[in-house]
Amino acid sequence: MKRVLIIQTGGTILMQTDQRMPGEVSMDPGLSKGFLLQEVPELSRIADLQIEGPFYEDSSNINPAHWKTLASCIATNYNEFDGFVILHGTDTMAFTASALSFALRPLTKPVIFTGSQVPLTTLRSDAHRNLINAVEIATMDVPEVGIVFDDKLYRGNRASKMSIGDFDAFASPNLPALAEIGLNIRFSSHIRPAGPTFHNTASFSDEVYILKVWPGINPDYLQPLPQSGIRGILIEGFGSGNFPVKGTGSLVPFLESCRDKAIVLAMCSQAPYDAIDLSKYESGRIAREIGILSAGSMTLEASVTKLMYLLAHHRDNGMVASQFVTDLAGELS
What we know:
By secondary structure, the chain is of the alpha/beta class. It has two domains: about 5-200, Rossmann fold; about 210-325, Rossmann fold, CATH 3.40.50.40. Helices cover about 25% and strands about 20% of the residues. It has helices spanning about 35-40, 65-75, 95-105, 125-140, 250-260, 280-290, 300-315, 315-325; strands at about 5-10, 15, 25, 50, 85, 105, 110-115, 145-150, 150-155, 160, 170, 180, 185, 200, 210, 230-235, 265-270, 295. It has an eight-stranded mixed beta sheet with strand order 4-1-5-7-8-9-12-13, with helices on both faces. Strands 15-16-17-18 form a four-stranded parallel beta sheet, with helices on both faces. Helix 3 runs parallel beside helix 7 and helix 7 (about 300-315) runs antiparallel to helix 8 (about 315-325). The chain is elongated, with a radius of gyration of 21 Å. The two termini are about 35 Å apart. About 45% of the residues are buried.
């Protein structure tokens, strides 16, 4: 029987209904590690399980320090287990999965994230199905950091949370699911091959800022940013990479000042589907002239965690730029 390590980090899946406030749920940091097997005894028929809990957080509190803790937990136990399942809140699951996809390379075993929209102990919870599917996938030959949710396996750095209230909370806008889980598990042909030797290189810079563009954005309020010590700015533009370039709302002078301060600039899209194309429209061509990098088909989550990862590993902006537009872990088409 395969050995799988379940890593509990918190999230809705492990929350409890608050009896004092009907309809509300709360976290219980003292939850027993045996709780999962009590609630879902079928798991022990799939794999020989061990459960660890390196921290217990609502996922809105997860940060790069937690990513490093998770990566270290996996690296420490890598040779002892055939696969890993990480229980994580859905709000930032795609960020954590993306970050680990860059830190844990090359993989030879599955690292599978899952969670739920409804707590495990609640009637009609989606947690049972997600847990069983995740543990089963973790016993298979899938050397990916993946997200299992609602009978699908997604590549972690291609997924985004799309719904707050539906069981199909995640989607992979620019890459089909790695597997469809029904009566049988149907794997796609684009699962990445196993690499030769596993390495944990988890390190992430917090010197990054996400700048969301909107109609009426006032560049004057952005002026302190180039002086703040920021090393990278991810611009979340319109469509294929557009942003204001005319009149008093033009972002061109601000972005040029960032470039002159040796800040790495990259552009992703507010639209989740398809890819950035900085050659299509005037503002995109201006972005290229400034030196803004294209995130291509990357999600926001993959774009920002990749930038954080690269800035932590390289002081040379040229290396950061060349690596950012290179497919490192299946994040780019």
